[in-house]
């Protein structure tokens, strides 16, 4: 029997760690899934999806930047979370030829934050940046139990999707001026930086100069280079730090559930062994598979 197929798509794709993560997981699970990478730009994704939707060998696609919004349009149906966030990082090919769009970035951020530190039942939450990943960060705040979320942006016009995601999820989003961040961040229980590599370096220098103290958890979605300047500054202030690589690991776990015929959140067989193998594949210390809050 030919192996099942799955892949990660995006541009550029050469840096992606998804093949390492998925291959390690399928080896532990004993699943015969061939997983590779395809470098695609936005206009190439729809025909790529259409060419595979009727092929029974194909299980699904992991979707990275800049294709997450296009991927949502390629899906015949979105999960509730995918629709709320407005972008998907997972396309599931179903036996009837239809394609389901889902967002596992939220599970990834939640898992990484909970693996890094302790979060109160009703945390004070903040997001740095208003781009595509910020919508998943807003959903993360809602899933962790926050009553609202503050989004620090340089331009309010770029944060429209984050505000809309909050409206759909029922969590108020308050936009804050970027220059307020250095003086306020230490008070938050959870901070998610959605900025690109080096995007928070100036903020990091300001935090170092202010020398605040914090007990919060910071997740920096940019995992290369690591540690980032803002992660270093946060750690020196006493906070816990979650690298974006941990987010990548935990979001891949939920994709693997889907690509092996399970529902999101359903435990994998030997899940801790799966997570350990994935961590080893990308050079991370072994993480515990956390018990994730469900909405």
Automatic annotation (TrEMBL):
InterPro entries the UniProt entry points to: Aminoacid_DH-like_N_sf, NAD(P)-bd_dom_sf, SDH_C, Shikimate_DH-bd_N, Shikimate_DH_fam
Gene Ontology BP, a term: shikimate metabolic process
Location of the SDH C-terminal domain: 244-264
GO cellular component, one term: cytosol
Residue ranges of domain Shikimate dehydrogenase substrate binding N-terminal in the record: 8-91
GO MF: NADP binding; shikimate 3-dehydrogenase (NADP+) activity
KW Amino-acid biosynthesis (keyword) present: yes
Positions of transmembrane segments: none
Pathway named in the protein's UniProt entry: Metabolic intermediate biosynthesis; chorismate biosynthesis; chorismate from D-erythrose 4-phosphate and phosphoenolpyruvate: step 4/7
Superkingdom in the source lineage: Bacteria
Record Gene3D superfamilies: Leucine Dehydrogenase, chain A, domain 1, NAD(P)-binding Rossmann-like Domain
Keywords from the UniProt entry: Amino-acid biosynthesis, Aromatic amino acid biosynthesis
Family matches, as NCBIfam families: PRK00258.1-3
Protein name: Shikimate dehydrogenase
Species name: Kocuria rosea subsp. polaris
């Amino acid at each position: 029997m030919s192996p099942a197929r799955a892949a990660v798509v995006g541009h550029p794709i050469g840096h992606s760690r998804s093949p390492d993560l998925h291959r390690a997981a399928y080896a532990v699970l004993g699943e015969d899934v061939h997983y590779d990478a395809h470098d695609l730009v936005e206009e190439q994704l729809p025909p790529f999806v259409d060419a595979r939707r009727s092929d029974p060998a194909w299980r699904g696609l992991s979707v990275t930047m800049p294709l997450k919004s296009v991927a949502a349009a390629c899906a015949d149906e979105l999960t509730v979370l995918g629709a709320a966030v407005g972008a998907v990082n997972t396309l599931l090919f179903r036996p009837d030829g239809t394609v389901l769009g889902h967002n596992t970035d939220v599970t990834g951020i939640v898992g990484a934050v909970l693996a890094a530190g302790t979060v109160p039942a009703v945390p004070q939450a903040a997001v740095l940046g208003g781009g595509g990943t910020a919508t998943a960060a807003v959903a993360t705040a809602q899933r962790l139990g926050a009553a609202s979320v503050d989004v620090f942006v340089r331009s309010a016009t770029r944060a429209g999707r984050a505000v809309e995601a909050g409206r759909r999820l029922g969590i108020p989003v308050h936009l804050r001026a970027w220059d307020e961040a250095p003086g306020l961040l230490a008070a938050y229980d959870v901070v998610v930086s959605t900025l690109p590599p080096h995007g928070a370096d100036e903020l990091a220098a300001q935090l170092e100069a202010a020398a605040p103290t914090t007990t919060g958890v910071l997740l920096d979605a940019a995992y290369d280079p690591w540690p980032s300047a803002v992660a270093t500054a946060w750690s020196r202030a006493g906070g816990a730090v979650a690298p974006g690589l941990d987010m990548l690991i935990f979001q891949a776990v939920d994709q693997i559930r889907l690509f092996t015929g399970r529902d999101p959140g359903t435990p994998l067989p030997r899940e801790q062994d799966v997570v350990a193998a994935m961590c080893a594949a990308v050079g991370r210390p072994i993480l515990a598979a956390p018990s994730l809050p469900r909405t």
